[in-house]
Design brief:
Elements: E1 4-10, H1 11-16, H2 18-36, H3 57-60, E2 65-71, E3 77-86, E4 102-110, H4 119-135, E5 139-145, H5 147-150, H6 153-156, E6 160-167, E7 178-187
Parallel strand pairs: 4-5
Antiparallel strand pairs: 1-2, 2-3, 3-4, 5-7, 6-7
InterPro entries: Acyl_CoA_acyltransferase
Protein name: N-acetyltransferase domain-containing protein
């Protein structure tokens, strides 16, 4: 994509840069608010996803990798995807038999004005390529989502449901119970994605 520049940073590096940390937290909050505003009866829109002054490592952990997408023209942060190692794989009662290490997608956000433009998909692919090269072998990606909010976005990118659980009111600032889905996919080659 000629209109975007993607760079990979660790979550620790992002949290040490106050301006970048704040910019990323604001992006996440704008993206989550825009998505949840489509269903105001189901989500508490008065609460941000993250607190503005918190380091991003509180949400991502110290060892996550973040693909940051900047607008090539203005340099503003327009999308981000982050994944953190999962030493024991996803938490679900069904055993997973996939080879290679697990990584959990902790965030996938785009500025509301840039949603549905492919920037998150491009950032995800860049992050997957980076992890695949670093590991030098197969990797597994997992995430938890509310499918009512994300629709078929993740299944279209090769993720399959491996577990569902009911979440109580208040989880993720919900106003009523909802279903959390754990999705996963295995990558055997860097070119095998989206």
């Amino acid at each position: 994509m000629a209109d975007a520049i993607i760079e990979i940073k660790t979550s620790s590096d992002v949290s040490k840069d106050a301006a970048l940390n704040g910019e990323l937290v604001e992006l996440i909050n704008r993206a989550f608010a825009a998505t949840k505003s489509r269903f105001p009866e189901e989500w508490d829109l008065s609460k941000p996803r993250l607190l503005v002054d918190d380091p991003i490592t509180l949400a991502l952990g110290d060892d996550a990798l973040v693909a940051l997408v900047r607008d090539a023209a203005g340099g503003s942060l327009v999308a981000a995807v982050a994944a953190a190692p999962m030493p024991n794989g996803p938490r679900c009662p069904e055993p997973t038999s996939s080879k290679g290490p697990w990584f959990e997608i902790k965030l996938a956000s785009a500025d509301p004005s840039r949603q549905r433009t492919g920037l998150v998909s491009r950032a995800l692919f860049t992050l997957e390529e980076h992890l695949f090269v670093a590991v030098r072998g197969p990797i597994n990606m997992s995430l938890q989502t509310c499918i009512a909010l994300t629709g078929d976005y993740w299944p279209k990118r090769g993720f399959k449901t491996i577990h569902t659980e009911e979440a109580a009111t208040g989880t993720w600032h919900s106003l009523r119970p909802f279903t959390i889905m754990t999705l996963a996919k295995s990558l055997k080659a860097a070119t095998q994605s989206n």
